[in-house]
Amino acid sequence: MRIPRLIAAGALAGSLLLLTAPAHAAAAQTTAVTAYGYNDNDDGNGNSGTARISYPQIHTQATEGSGSYDDPATFATDPNEYPPGTIIYVPHLQKYFIMEDGCVECTADWQNGVHHVDLWMGPAAPQPEPALADCEKYVTRSSADILVSPDPGLPVDTTPMFADGQCTAVIH
């Protein structure tokens, strides 16, 4: 549990007035949000069909996790946009994600001044098509508000986005 800092705001009739302030505020960011999975993830050498990630932080391979703060899913972007280990919260999915992978399209967008994150969905094994691609499109938003470096405690939907060969994502 995070304890708020106390800030002395001044004296009032001989007593100290204390105000609380959050330890830090998450930054809201309007961002292009896309999704990827095992079938369309590459190993960095142009070979698709892998769960390999470029910047392992808490996982050894891409994972959907539960989407909670303590078990975030993997996301990809340009490492200059959000450094590896950055945690984000995606409100329309009610899930936390951690930056652990690179994304060629995200890098191109970032170089053109566009924020872009790519969210991992599904298990780390081949998935049926077009089900996976259709589910990726379902959660995609050309412009969505996300929270960067959020605190824990936001609402979390632990429903996987893609499971048992079908789209199970819930949009909030």
What does this entry look like structurally?
- This protein is mainly beta and 172 residues long.
- The protein has a single domain (25-167), classed as Barwin-like endoglucanases (Beta Barrel), CATH 2.40.40.
- The protein is 10% helix and 33% strand.
- It has helices spanning 104-111, 131-139; strands at 5-12, 15-21, 27-36, 73-76, 87-90, 95-101, 116-120, 141-148, 162-163, 166-167.
- The strands form three sheets. It has a six-stranded mixed beta barrel. Strands 1-2 form a two-stranded antiparallel sheet. A two-stranded antiparallel sheet has the order 9-10.
- The longest helix is centred in the last third of the chain and has 9 residues, at 131-139.
- The radius of gyration is 19 Å and the shape is globular.
- Residues 1-25 form the signal peptide.
- Keywords: Signal.
Helices and strands in order:
Elements: E1 5-12, E2 15-21, E3 27-36, E4 73-76, E5 87-90, E6 95-101, H1 104-111, E7 116-120, H2 131-139, E8 141-148, E9 162-163, E10 166-167
Parallel strand pairs: 3-7, 4-6
Antiparallel strand pairs: 1-2, 3-8, 4-7, 5-6, 5-8, 9-10
Strand fraction equals 25-35%
Number of helices: 2
Question: Element order, helices and strands?
Answer: EEEEEEHEHEEE
Query: For the report, how would you describe the main beta sheet?
Result: 6 strands, mixed, barrel
Overall 3D shape:
globular
Structural class computed from helices and strand pairing: mainly beta
Keywords: Signal
Signal peptide: 1-25
